[in-house]
Amino acid sequence: xxxxxxxxxxxxxxxxxxxxxxxxxxxxxxxxxxxxxxxxxxxxxxxxxxxxxxxxxxxxxxxxxxxxxxxxxxxxxxxxxxxxxxxxxxxxxxxxxxxxxxxxxxxxxxxxxxxxxxxxxxxxxxxxxxxxxxxxxxxxxxxxxxxxxxxxxxxxxxxxxxxxxxxxxxxxxxxxxxxxxxxxxxxxxxxxxxxxxxxxxxxxxxxxxxxxxxxxxxxxxxxxxxxxxxxxxxxxxxxxxxxxxxxxxxxxxxxxxxxxxxxxxxxxxxxxxxxxxxxxxxxxxxxxxxxxxxxxxxxxxxxxxxxxxxxxxxxxxxxxxxxxxxxxxxxxxxxxxxxxxxxxxxxxxxxxxxxxxxxxxxxxxxxxxxxxxxxxxxxxxxxxxxxxxxxxxxxxxxxxxxxxxxxxxxxxxxxxxxxxxxxxxxxxxxxxxxxxxxxxxxxxxxxxxxxxxxxxxxxxxxxxxxxxxxxxxxxxxxxxxxxxxxxxxxxxxxxxxxxxxxxxxxxxxxxxxxxxxxxxxxxxxxxxxxxxxxxxxxxxxxxxxxxxxxxxxxxxxxxxxxxxxxxxxxxxxxxxxxxxxxxxxxxxxxxxxxxxxxxxxxxxxxxxxxxxxxxxx
Length: 617
Prior knowledge:
Elements (H helix, E strand, L loop, with lengths): L8 H11 L5 H18 L18 H14 L6 H28 L12 H47 L6 H14 L5 H21 L4 H24 L6 H17 L6 H48 L9 H20 L5 H50 L5 H17 L5 H26 L4 H18 L6 H13 L9 H15 L5 H18 L3 H30 L9 H29 L3
Helix pairs in contact: 2-7, 2-9, 2-10, 3-4, 3-5, 5-6, 5-7, 8-9, 8-10, 9-10, 10-11, 10-12, 11-12, 12-13, 12-14, 15-17, 17-18, 18-20, 19-20
């Protein structure tokens, strides 16, 4: 029998409340929490692919502006919030530092603080982009809010249509009309979360009224009830199986989806099963809710452990002693150690924002002490490097002015002196280093090439040296196995025979090869052999006063040291990625063996460099 047509909305709501299934307060609380989350998610749009987060903190102001411009131009406005916030944070920090620097310069020039003003084209462009982003973002969310309200109005209209259908039922058309209402309901998008649950409950109440009053086609109604019962039983089984999923967050997220499907996609079941299926579904919901509650309770108990461990790291940074740092090398070592402590802080574990902020501020305060001292050092270092650049530029200009001189004796002494002075001057700013070194080396090489060409007029005496050394070289080749003392004696005799003219210096190379072969036959350590071979070559350069080759040799050795250190660091970095492997792991053994070889090579290169540094040339 149909309901009275004059029944008001208030009466319907009252009937709805009176007819709700009776469940325990604990179950009801758990179900309400889940359904409130479903309501909250109802007005959220579907997740889309996230935009990659770049390292904005390392970018300059101009690049940050360019990235913000690309984000706004190439992406939906609702997807760029996280990236836009990261850019905003990086820009404010960098521009704040620039502003502070400009103000400091303004005051240093005698300006009054109250008169200081500063802006720049990049700041103006950034402000314009930020305004554009906010306008588009606000317009988007205003549109979303209007859409949610519009969807709510549409659902309320359908509720009224359903009530009218029940109250003015036409046995021949009512079921088809009801199907149309259901299709329209499912097609309507999200509604405001504050109204989601109430709206659905009223709608569902009238759906159940419709089915209870649907006597026109009992077989069809029972078929529909049976289908809905089967679908709801599947949801119950899935909800019960969620207790077996290890990741509680994944399980709870799926539970919310099950509740949404229960409400939005599946119709009512016959009255005799309604309380039973809802009771089972609610019980499964409560069990998972309780497990999640216990999980977060346990997690909160661990938060204090994480906080305590992080504070221990903060104290290590506070106690870090950098008072003896006097060089770039000292500070680079300290920077690595501080960074390792910071990484230890992060590795301890993550905390929710409301727990992490206090300890995070303590970390920032601890590192600020170190960074202030470091920045002061490098500010002073930058000033010293500027002075060094000025000194080296004076040497460059002097070398370039002398490269065409023919006052051989005076100019040679001057060139040797300025080369020595160059080595005593410290570092210069990196962006100028290669350029001034190239100019200085070119000028010096040009002069010494001319000097060597001047000396290359081969005399009869030099021809005699060539003949004598060729004979001596053959004697050395045929000498057989020699002791270390005998090899050294051959080296001394070779030098005593005199210097070769430039066009015959290839004989020095042949002699060095015989020395290498003789040393290889001796029972000596590799380092000792390498050093003897190296001394033989270098001493020849000294005897010939070939300072360009000595400089080239030193440059080459420094380059090899840098390359060897880089290769070692790469292997050590690789080893950190397989730290869980045991020492007998073949991969670990190979990496450690490689590191050992590089260490041996590094010792030999360093030994050669130390020898060169001791020479006075």
